Amino acid sequence: MLIPDELDRGLIHALHVDARAPFTLIAEVLGSSTQTVTRRYRRLHAEAGLRVVALPDPRSTRTDQWFLRLTAATRTAHDLAAALARRSDTSWVRLTSGGTEIVAIVHAAPGGPDAHSLLLRDIPRTAGVTAVSAHCLLHTYLGGPTPWRGRLGVLSPEQEARLRAGTVPAADSGPYELTDADRRLLGALRADARAGYADLAAATGSTPATVARRLTALRARGALFFDIDIEPAVLGVTVSALLWMQVAPSRLDEVATALAGHDELALVAATTGPTNLVAHALCQDAEALHHYLTRRVALDAITRIETAPVLRTYKAAATLRG
């Protein structure tokens, strides 16, 4: 397995700061050559599953996000998880809890004749599924545009500032409704967010100049964000777990805000359901997870916590995993 060095980690950190920064700028910031940085990126792509993807802000697509938990027979869980991963309306498809539970995020339109068809009709009728629960994501405290800190910590504030100098800060101007042209562009960026303007133009039936203007406008409106897909083991993570927590509603915001500051977590989100807070823990090993659960998450407002180890990831933010 590839063991990233300081330059590799610096490159990953740089891509989080500006996913479309030219390799020439990244090389300058990292004190390396463009050729070396380009070679390292290709190696991380080939050997560590590194993918740079663009995802729409849920407000722009006018969709709800649901955490779907399925209990299935062991013999059918793999096939069901793989089928869910291939759908365009899912992300973060994982097998947990001894291989009998599948957890996925489903993106569903809030209304219309086909709204929630996957949740209400398709899944319940699937052979081998013995239990279904769905938790609507209400608010994200950590995750999405906010990256896991385990991928950062390499670049100095000055280096980050140099990378951000050419970007346009996203304005908090309220939801922006995507056009058909925007959706075509996002589809191409979902496959490869570092694709050149000429390639994006060819994929969307547009021109490079038009694509450049549209992408700049989408970023300025906060209608999309960039994410990094990479195998966690490359970054020293061997144990991953979902934490389903029950918190007193009056203290939910306080607890979630505190957890969002923990380096061990990649996601903290408020949801509906019997457990109203979910987190995703990434730890070096089982002992580190035990230490985290017993000494860092021991908040008195958490009345119940269920730990579900992740055994396999079938789909990350947008990338299918083998």
Task: Note down, in words, how this protein is organized.
This protein is an alpha+beta fold and 322 residues long. The protein is 36% helix and 27% strand. The strands form two sheets. It has an eight-stranded antiparallel barrel. Strand 3 and strand 4 form a beta hairpin. Helix 2 packs across helix 3. The model has no long low-confidence stretch (mean pLDDT 89).
Throw out a few tags for this protein.
322 residues, alpha+beta, two-stranded antiparallel sheet, 12 helices, 36% helix
How much is the average pLDDT? Answer: 89
Give the number of helices.
Answer: 12
Shape: globular
Pairing-aware structural class of the strands and helices? alpha+beta
Beta strands, count: 10
Strand order of the largest sheet: 2-4-3-10-7-9-8-5
Strand residues, percent: 25-35%
Alpha-carbon distance between the termini?
Answer: 15 Å
The helix content is 25-40%
| Topology as a string of helices (H) and strands (E) | HHHEHEHEEHEHHHHEEHEEHE
Radius of gyration: 20 Å
- Uncertain stretches: none
Profile the largest sheet.
8 strands, antiparallel, barrel
